[in-house]
Task: inverse folding
């Protein structure tokens, strides 16, 4: 992008090699600080339980063992189920979320639509003022009767003001009124225009909000904490939370009971099991990260432009 | 076009005696029937999911019982009396605001510094790589972060078992000592969220016209002078807006951070209990709906006025950056 001449000037004027080196070292250290904790729990998950209790958490296990994973695979149904809930909620939620967001954002992005300001404010106001947890919780459990229903995991993040404003900004800038007008003259209905022109032309922004939505559903444990009661409906993040709270969540169906739960976490067996569970829960997002992060950044920069 | 005009005229004729506003709406409705139909499903959804709870905050003035729910009898300011007479009201308000102020300060200084340095690094591929790695923690859920913190701080964790022997430090029971958490919480929050700020400020830097730098180079400005007199001044509006918006949200705490990372250890409450966790605990565990809804009302209303105030102050600084 930058011309050759300018580039040369920049080389003349860039920071000195020494400063550059110092910064590179500092950034390397910071990057290690970002990744090391993840590596640590992976190393713990492949440490032998007995040597873990003796030597504590370390990056260099004195004895390696995969028994935690073997143990988890014995009871794999639980994890598979949690993954099933997460993936199912994620897919259905994301599709619905994208559709509803587009349906709201398209009309309010049209300059010819007279009430677009009213509807824009209608969604924007939800960012300014919230009823808060208590009335919302009462509404979901007492009136909508969604306690222990998977719908309670799908519904809440469906339409967010941020997503609507991202799409609205994108459509207002990238959807030429002329194309829509010519389609109207050809007699196409608004719905037809929406599905055969607007949607295909919005693929980049759909990818962006789709990604936001996938991440929101994938990382959700809060809705599960609030509304889900029976273990069969737990999603993966909430299962991880349960495993961190008490190891019995992972062991109960294999071992009869661990007896009295010692409050001293140190003595609870299965530390490695717990970390193995964490690795199974974290894995997908870390592996997918290199592929999605640049789309996410692109989406953020659209969102940063005020709607 | 001609047909359009006559339509308006006849409409005007018909409605001359009634109010003007209603027919206008009807005209729009019939003209843009399909657009309204599109808006309808999300409109209803938002109404139920977001607007009904807004009206629901009146339960803070009621003596809640399960059967009548939102229609429970009024009991005036009793709930608020209980809330503000308890010591918790002060502690949770103090914690929420103090932590948010620290987060805003750290977030601003660190994100701007890192963004500027990343932009100056010679090797652009390496700079991209650093940025990606620093952004990674942002995508981990708070449950995962709780695991990571636990693996370092637990009695058997990395600090106590690996660092203590090597560096000859004192073993610490982190999960029973509230005083350490005033430092741990900001570190964890910065570690997780800083990547977001960096992306925003890098976008801001890339928007600066290169001509300024070229002119500065011609005038013999050093790199440091360029950063001081071009990059930072150009970022100032963005910094002000981000900060004011964050101040508007100072009454809202990140529930995940304060709920997951201290692992709900009761002993840590003096330094880790914030408005959001208090409301949650009062609702789910003590079943104290009066207290919980009063705290919720307090948070919503004060938060709302802070947002309005924040927006008003942005308007004072620069009109074009006003949010609404």
Result:
């Amino acid at each position: 992008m930058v011309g050759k001449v300018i580039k040369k000037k920049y080389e003349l004027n860039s920071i000195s090699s020494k400063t550059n080196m110092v910064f590179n070292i500092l950034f390397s250290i910071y990057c290690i600080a970002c990744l090391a904790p993840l590596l640590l729990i992976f190393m713990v998950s492949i440490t032998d339980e007995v040597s873990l209790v003796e030597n504590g958490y370390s990056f260099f296990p004195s004895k390696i063992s995969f028994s935690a994973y073997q143990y988890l695979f014995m009871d794999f149904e639980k994890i598979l189920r949690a993954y099933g809930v997460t993936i199912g909620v994620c897919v259905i939620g994301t599709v619905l979320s994208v559709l509803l967001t587009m349906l709201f954002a398209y009309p309010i992005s049209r300059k010819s639509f007279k009430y677009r300001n009213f509807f824009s404010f209608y969604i924007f106001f939800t960012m300014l003022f919230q009823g808060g947890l208590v009335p919302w919780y009462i509404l979901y459990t007492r009136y909508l009767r969604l306690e222990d229903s998977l719908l309670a995991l799908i519904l809440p993040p469906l339409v967010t003001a941020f997503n609507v404003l991202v799409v609205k900004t994108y459509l207002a800038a990238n959807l030429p009124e002329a194309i829509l007008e010519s389609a109207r003259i050809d007699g196409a209905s608004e719905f037809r225009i929406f599905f055969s022109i607007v949607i295909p032309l919005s693929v980049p922004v759909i990818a962006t909000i789709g990604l936001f939505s996938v991440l929101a559903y994938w990382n959700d444990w809060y809705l599960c904490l609030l509304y889900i009661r029976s273990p069969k409906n737990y999603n993966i993040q909430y299962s991880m939370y349960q495993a961190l709270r008490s190891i019995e969540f992972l062991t109960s169906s294999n071992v009869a009971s661990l007896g009295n739960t010692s409050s001293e976490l140190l003595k609870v067996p299965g530390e490695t099991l717990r970390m193995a569970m964490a690795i199974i829960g974290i894995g997908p997002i870390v592996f997918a990260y290199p592929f999605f992060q640049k789309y996410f950044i692109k989406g953020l920069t659209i969102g940063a432009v005020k709607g | 076009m001609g047909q359009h005009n006559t339509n308006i005229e006849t409409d005007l004729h018909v409605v001359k005696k009634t109010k003007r506003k209603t027919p206008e709406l009807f005209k729009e409705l019939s003209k843009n029937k399909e657009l309204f139909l599109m808006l309808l499903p999300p409109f209803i959804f938002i109404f139920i999911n977001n607007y009904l709870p807004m009206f629901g905050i009146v339960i803070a003035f009621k003596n809640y019982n399960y059967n009548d729910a939102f229609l429970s009898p009024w009991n005036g300011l009793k709930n608020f009396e209980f809330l503000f007479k308890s010591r918790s009201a002060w502690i949770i308000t103090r914690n929420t605001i103090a932590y948010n102020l620290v987060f805003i300060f750290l977030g601003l200084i660190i994100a701007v510094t890192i963004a500027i340095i990343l932009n100056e690094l010679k090797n652009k591929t390496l700079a991209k790589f650093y940025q990606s790695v620093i952004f990674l923690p942002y995508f981990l859920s708070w449950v995962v972060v709780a695991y990571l913190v636990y693996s370092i701080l637990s009695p058997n964790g990395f600090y106590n078992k690996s660092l203590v022997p090597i560096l000859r430090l004192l073993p610490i029971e982190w999960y029973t000592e509230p005083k350490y958490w005033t430092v741990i919480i900001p570190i964890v929050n910065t570690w997780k969220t800083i990547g977001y700020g960096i992306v925003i400020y890098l976008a801001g830097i890339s928007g600066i016209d290169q001509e300024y730098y070229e002119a500065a180079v011609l005038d013999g400005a050093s790199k440091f002078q360029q950063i001081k007199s071009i990059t930072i001044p150009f970022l100032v509006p963005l910094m002000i807006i981000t900060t004011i918006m964050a101040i508007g949200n100072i009454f809202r705490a990140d529930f995940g951070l304060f709920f997951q990372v201290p692992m709900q250890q009761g002993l840590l409450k003096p330094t880790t209990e914030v408005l959001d966790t208090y409301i949650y605990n009062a609702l789910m565990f003590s079943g104290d709906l009066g207290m919980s809804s009063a705290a919720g009302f307090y948070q919503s209303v004060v938060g709302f006025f802070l947002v309005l105030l924040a927006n008003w102050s942005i308007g004072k600084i620069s009109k074009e950056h006003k949010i609404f």
In short: Residues 76-109 of chain A form the longest helix (34 residues).
